[in-house]
Structure formats: structure tokens, C-alpha cells
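Homework help board

Subject: predicted structure for assignment chain

Our instructor gave us this sequence and asked us to write out the predicted structure in C-alpha cell form, then describe one feature. I got the C-alpha cells but I'm not sure how to describe them. Can anyone check?
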Amino acid sequence: SELSRRATIDDLRTSIIAQNKINETLCAEQCVGRWIWRSGRVKTNNHVPWNVQVSNSAPNVYLWEKDRGVIGVVQAGLYEITFGFYSQKKPSIQVLVNGEPILSAMNTASYVVHHSSGRLMAVGSHPSGNITGLTMIDFIALPNNANIAITYTGEDGAEGFLGLKKLG
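My C-alpha cell output:
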């Protein structure tokens, strides 16, 4: 009969629990947020205002508000941080956690200095303009309820991105 083929409440609960475990595993592998700065202008404290949220697989972990200079990260843990800034002249960048600088990237003469990666040699300009920008990938251990900000010092009209991915 039709009634005997229907799932029971217990069957439904079991399926929901199993699906939640799958979702938690997938989120642990893909807990990713990515934001873009398009306005080319910084806040008065040189913080980059994140104008666009490109993706956020965990809005309960990554807290974003349009044009705000801070991304909130609720969960403590290890994160991959990626960023890139594109302008005619390479800028100086600082990443702040809870208002304190944790890493810097800056252009000095013909190379970019980063506290843990040494230096990257510049190879000259490209006919299409600045297509490589100042980019970086690093790994950081964040406390609970961390606020991530990036300060930008450079020419107006630049663009950039910030990406965070929770590891494990």
C-alpha cells in the first residue's frame, strides 16, 4: 500500500543526521570566503573596504558587510589567506588581526619583501599593463572572533581581493 512505502519519522531523523555529517565534512573542506575591492579608495585608516562578496560557503563563520574594512572570522583555527592588489605601482600591504599587523608585503626597489617568503624578483612590465599585481598566499592561526583587515598604501584606483579558507 501507499502508506507502507512512506518514510517514518525515525527514518527521516536518521537521514537528516547522516546528511548533517556529510555537510559538516564538506564545509570543513570548503569553508571558503572571497571578497573584492573595486572602489579604488580606502577608508581613512587605510583599511580596504570590501565592496563585493564573491563567495561565502560559511556565512556563519565569515562575517561580511558591504564596504566595511573588516571581515569577521568566528571560528578559531588554521586558515589559508590569499590576497592580491593591482595598480600601476606596487603598493605596500599589511594584514591585521584584531588591529595588530601580522604580515606585510611591500615593494622596495626591484623586489617584493614578505616576512616569511623572502623576495620575489620583478621581471618588468607587460604590454597589457599590470597583470600580476602584488599577490600572496600564507597560512595563519586565528583566534575565535578574529577581525581581519588589510591596509593599503599606494595610488588611488587600485583593485584587490582577499580569500580565506579554513583548513580542517
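Reply (TA_rk): Your C-alpha cells look well-formed. For the description, you could write something like this. DSSP finds one helix and twelve strands in the chain. That's the kind of observation they're looking for.
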